[in-house]
Amino acid sequence: MPVAVPLSSYEHVPETKEALDWADLPTIDLSLNATEKGRAQLADTLIEALRTKGFFYVTNFGISQAEVDSQFAIGEQFYTLPLEEKLRYVPDLENGEYNGYRPAGRRVLSSGVQDKIEVYNIPKPEVPQSFPPLIEGHLPEIRAFQEKLHERVLHPLLTLLASALELPADTLTNLHQWDKRAEDHLRYMKYSRYDAAEYEKLEAGDGLYVTGHTDLGSLTLLFRQPVAGLQIRDHETGSWKWAKPLDASLTVNACDALSFLTGGYVRSTIHRVHVPPKDQRDVDRLGLLYFARPNQGVVLKTLDSPVLAREGFTANEFERAGKPAPTIDEFTVAKQAWQQSKSTVFRAKEGQEILSGFKGQYYD
Ligand SMILES: O=C(O)CCC(=O)C(=O)O
Ligand SMILES: [Fe+2]
């Protein structure tokens, strides 16, 4: 087994000084999870956040900044590997596989500019995967980090959500067990900078690196990202606001699978990535994310919850269309293939039906 290559410490870039229209997001402070009163309060805050803003911060989640920075350092180092080495780890993207490396330049952005987004996804240990020696050397640390995210962040949030839905506390955690095979993955993501002329072209179009979309799993956990770019569409007002980096926090959003499981009561949140403000255009944007998804084989049908029954959220898109609800695996492959297949035309795949009863959509 390769030994861990020592990494230089990771320096976060300075935040923007521009006065952007920041989203005002609620915070789930997990230190309150220690008492019954605190849990009741958090469950209320969480369901309100999921029903209105769609995004929220999580703080005091029991993972140190040093551990987080170490992951950013691994991600930064990964992207210094020669392209030919990274290309050895490209999965069958056209057919919906996504663990491993996705090179830049598969998508055409507005004004015909090619994307400069690279993605590297690391699945759970149960999923067979080969890694470059750099990653292999750090695998024990990466595994420990993934497991902590699962047990210390995902599970408390799912337990709070079960309580808000008046379901037995373990209803949702049972569908998301760490030691079961599933499509959860940790991601290092890099948006490389453009030159001034290309930024101008992008701005003459829609100014976006990533079009408005929803994520396909349960919850996405996004580590503090000092280079502004992420924008969130408010469920209530429809307006786009920037996500502000908040110290020692995660930014979390609900995704398609959780929306299906709750008959649309929890909405999958629409978000996009804008080109950064002018004072951050001379740096690359490095992201660290965890995409949580239900266990393999979980059928995406609406849960039987007293709250959902009372509020009238008893059928999701598939059920309302009289179609069989897919398993998370079927849904994942179909939506990933739709998202990832190479395109030469801007928004070539708009509105395609990706599974019977569900269309792939972009959002403005
Ligand atoms: O880079 C970001 O801030 C968000 C990325 C994103 O939305 C995604 O990869 O699904
Ligand atoms: Fe996303």
Automatic annotation (TrEMBL):
Stretches assigned to the Non-haem dioxygenase N-terminal domain: 25-125
Gene3D superfamilies in the cross-refs: B-lactam Antibiotic, Isopenicillin N Synthase, Chain (2.60.120.330)
Record domain Isopenicillin N synthase-like Fe(2+) 2OG dioxygenase: where: 208-280
Highest taxon listed in the record's lineage: Eukaryota
Name of the featured protein: UPF0676 protein
UniProt gene name: SPCC1494.01_0
